[in-house]
Amino acid sequence: MIRLRPVLPVFFLMLFLCAAILSPALAKEADVAAPTPPTDKVFNAQTFTLDNGLQVVVVENRSIPVVTHMVWYRVGAADEPPGKSGIAHFLEHLMFKGQSYPGLGEIAPGEFSKIVRSLGGNDNAFTAQDYTAYFQTISSAHLETVMRMEAGRMRGLQLPREAVDSERLVILEERRQRIDNDPRAQFDEQLGEALFPNHPYGTPVIGWFHEMEQLSWEDATGFYQRYYAPNNAYLVVSGDVSVEDVRALAEKTYGLIPKGDVPERARTISPPFIARTSVKMTHPVVKEPVFQREYRAPSARQNAKDSLALQVLEEIMDGGSTSRLYKSLVVEKKIASSVSLSYISFAWDDATLAVGGTAMDGFTPEQVEAAIDDELRLLITGGVREQELKEAILRLQAQAIYARDSVAGPAMVVGYTLVTGSSLDDLETWPQQIETVTAKQVQDVAAKYLNPDAPTSTPFVNGYLYPPQTKAEEKAP
Amino acid sequence: MIRLRPVLPVFFLMLFLCAAILSPALAKEADVAAPTPPTDKVFNAQTFTLDNGLQVVVVENRSIPVVTHMVWYRVGAADEPPGKSGIAHFLEHLMFKGQSYPGLGEIAPGEFSKIVRSLGGNDNAFTAQDYTAYFQTISSAHLETVMRMEAGRMRGLQLPREAVDSERLVILEERRQRIDNDPRAQFDEQLGEALFPNHPYGTPVIGWFHEMEQLSWEDATGFYQRYYAPNNAYLVVSGDVSVEDVRALAEKTYGLIPKGDVPERARTISPPFIARTSVKMTHPVVKEPVFQREYRAPSARQNAKDSLALQVLEEIMDGGSTSRLYKSLVVEKKIASSVSLSYISFAWDDATLAVGGTAMDGFTPEQVEAAIDDELRLLITGGVREQELKEAILRLQAQAIYARDSVAGPAMVVGYTLVTGSSLDDLETWPQQIETVTAKQVQDVAAKYLNPDAPTSTPFVNGYLYPPQTKAEEKAP
Q1: What's the CATH number of domain B11-256, 3.40.50.1000, 3.90.1640.30, 3.30.830.10, 1.10.245.10?
Q2: Closest CA to B63 of B410, B462, B309
Q3: CATH number of the domain at B277-473, please?
Q4: Whole-model pTM?
């Protein structure tokens, strides 16, 4: 029987894990011993496109004889048909269930990762709203092997019907563990639903349980046939390899696959926000109450300039122990035990900016909210100091430069960037661009997107997560 | 040029208008001079089905020489494809834009209603989440003419492309007037959206403005071709006509149309409610604050028994000036200037039960909410008195009996009933069934569906509509 693999797709884990280490836009807490502000490109990535439309990006790094090889499909949960939530992620699991393609060999169900491991490498995959990615990190001597394997399942999936039933149990269990047994994840899911009415981002990547239970072989293979094609993907290779070598290998492997007829991305759009929605949840295992607000804000693709300013704003508000929110709520007021503001610029449609905190014993989430609102008002009315701005920009630039030094990091960042609609050039010149952000711009984006007193057309939702109430409190919230 | 007709579909208007006059389940304030509890059928409706699958229902009423002729299609806004909200209603408008069918004649664009009026009749149409209906009320001498006309557009719509652009302006204007210029309607729309995540009832029948703007000739004719067919419709004729006459006429007209290949109804389902959502809206033209809570409750189709008890509950809580909510909030506490509880049992999926009130000067919607919750708790813990139950049932039965006496009323009620999945027998024996509802059942459904203190899995959302705030109040809600 097929061994149940923890393919663990899962965006949440992977994105935050990798992002915290690698992504310039997301990393926190980096050392600020400032490098010289960069003038050259971040990755010196090289790119070419095969005749079948597959864009290939290579980031050379010869420090160790290892490569990371990734394929990013421009399809994710937000491209699913209605009623089939979870199919993008389910398919990602099923992509390990056997393949055969002329000239690219065959792999039996469940063997893919075993082969990678037998060659000393590791592999995984993850699914998000806008993309699905597969990768291997392996000795550069075996790059051709994994390229052949990955290319082989781009159009050559041979999915046994029985694999679908057994793997469905895996994704359902995954949902139980990651969402349904985790009040914080449930809470985030509810906030996302409220923040994105009539838009697919409101549906969780992993899917709604009752819809996941019904996902079929036909759903998976139909989705695969529609979206998996070289002209709907990016190939990113980083590490110990030259662009010439990758070109030769890509032509021998991915080059065998014809262009597909991929439908244009067509997503529904949310109606204007004319009311303020809030979500309150009480859960028996919650110990400390949490306040979380989620805003819709422009992604890098939608508005590169405002997105850069939001990245600086994020660093000023939540860039470690000297950041504004931490200093105010945790150190000075002692209202919150933790606080965060996070903005993920990588989205095809609207990005999400989340701000929130966990209340200290004796405080309510409403008090955390009020303290956060005070900091936002201070930012909007008072702006940021030049020194504060400069330090935040330097910390961000430092993170970008350190990102060069890993093998997998560049492939990850290049992938996020391209697959969510920004360009390689945007990425390469990011340190110079972030340096152009002014104090005025930071203040302006705060006023434009984060104003807690704005008319309700500013799209945000408020969330309050409470521990179980004592009898005496029962009528309070 | 085509004259822009106020086709005014609109469910809201029609349903409430007709329902208030006619529907046993919805009517209020009827005289309670009790008729003998009925033992015979309400309408003595007769029914037969044509070979093409069209079910026909006839309610004879010879009091005046007039008939109401209605066609109910089992398709509505909740059957629309994603991103095409409003297409069911838009098509309803476009159904007046020209037709031609072999054996059933031709009608030029815009002529349909003129012909009806020239014969001394009137006609209209309306669209709801679960159905679309067209009707004429006319001298019984002209029944054949309107049957031929209505049958002729069942498969014979000849929609000119230019009609789509001009009529789109009409529906957009309709949305502006009925929703976007009416804070109460906007508020209801927001509540509906929050109450039905991942279910099409969360999308307004009229559509989202930005999607309505994009609706095309292809969208309208595609929807029409897919759903308009005799086997996806009910024909209801009430008034001065015999079942034999209707059968002969139906065979000559609707009988010419072949059965269609109609897709099965497939709607997405909401995930479980695990958090409590509330919606707050402030609007410059609102004078008095409003509290409104909307629950999901079983429809008659889903749970006939609980639905009957909810109908009695509605009558007890809001059946005129002696009802519980009015007496408590308006007369005694003087917290609210008006209050209501309404339950519409006619739905294919979950029904909505709404309870709310408008605050008196000096009171907040939160105080109205608290007073309503007190009444609900009283009902749940204390139940209802036998006398109260008996009177409510008698009032409901009286309304059913009076409903017989109109011409259009029976056609309307028969249509609602069948098209939302209940049977003619359910309708005919409704007065006997409602009589079986016990005090215990009313108390039980209150506890099961309306408990304000229940765990969040009881699906409801709270709404608060505020007048513009004075400067001093600005930070309050």
Answers
A1: 3.30.830.10
A2: B410
A3: 3.30.830.10
A4: 0.87
Residue pair B70/B127 in contact (Cβ under 8 Å)? The answer is no
Choice among B80, B92, B314, B435 that is catalytic: B92
Do A11-256 and A277-473 share a fold?
yes
User: By percentage, how much of chain B surpasses pLDDT 70?
Assistant: 90
pLDDT of residue A29: 37
Two tokens, residue A121: 């490498």
Q: Which residue of A has its CA nearest to B194?
A: A194
SS (H, E, C) chain A: CCCCCCCCCCHHHHHHHHHHHHCCCCCCCCCCCCCCCCCCCCCCCEEEECCCCCEEEEEECCCCCEEEEEEEECCCHHHCCCCCCCHHHHHHHHCCCCEEECCCEEECCCCHHHHHHHCCCEEEEEECCCCEEEEEEEEHHHHHHHHHHHHHCCCCECCCHHHHHHHHHHHHHHHHHHHHCCHHHHHHHHHHHHHCCCCHHHCCCCCCHHHHCCCCHHHHHHHHHHHCCHHHEEEEEEECCCHHHHHHHHHHCHHHCCCCCCCCCCCCCCCCCCCEEEEEEECCCCCCCEEEEEEEECCCCCCHHHHHHHHHHHHHHHCCCCCHHHHHHHHHCCCEEEEEEEECCCCCCCEEEEEEEEECCCCCHHHHHHHHHHHHHHHHHHCCCHHHHHHHHHHHHHHHHHHCCCCHHHHHHHHHHHHCCCCHHHHHCHHHHHHCCCHHHHHHHHHHHCCCCCCCCCCEEEEEEECCCCHHHCCCC
In the predicted structure, residue A477 carries a pLDDT above the cut 90: no
From the list A190, A193, A268, the residue facing B82 with the nearest CB is A268
Q: What is the pLDDT of residues A103-135, one digit of tens each?
A: 999 999 999 999 999 999 999 999 999 999 999
For chain B, the average pLDDT equals: 90
Nearest CB to A83; choose among B194, B268, B275: B268
A381: CB partners within 8 A, 6+ apart: none
- Across the interface, do A275 and B266 touch by the CB < 8 Å criterion? no
Phi, psi for B271 (deg, rounded to 5)? -70, 165
The verdict on a CB contact (< 8 Å) between B208 and A193 is no
Q: Tell me whether 0.85 is exceeded by the ipTM.
A: no
Q: Which residues of chain B have a CB within 8 Å of the CB of A203?
A: 198
The residues, any chain, with a CB within 8 Å of residue B222's CB and separated by 6 or more, are: none
Tokens of A89: 């992620």
Question: What residue ranges do the domains of chain B occupy?
Answer: 11-256, 277-473
Give residue A18's pLDDT band: very low, low, confident or very high (50, 70, 90): very low
Judge whether A117 is closer than 8 Å to chain B, CB to CB.
no
Lowest mean per-residue pLDDT among A16-30, B308-322, B338-352:
A16-30
**Residue A207 has what pLDDT?**
98
Alpha carbon separation from B312 to B19, B340, B377 (Å, rounded): 16, 14, 17
Looking at CA atoms only, how far is residue A161 from chain B in angstroms? 24
Distance CA A376, CA A370 (A): 10
Q: Is B92 one of the catalytic residues?
A: yes
Give the number of C-alpha atoms closer than 13 A to the C-alpha of residue A163, restricted to the C-beta side: 25
The amino acid at residue B466 is: Y
Please indicate whether residue B98 or residue A403 has the higher confidence score (pLDDT). Answer: B98
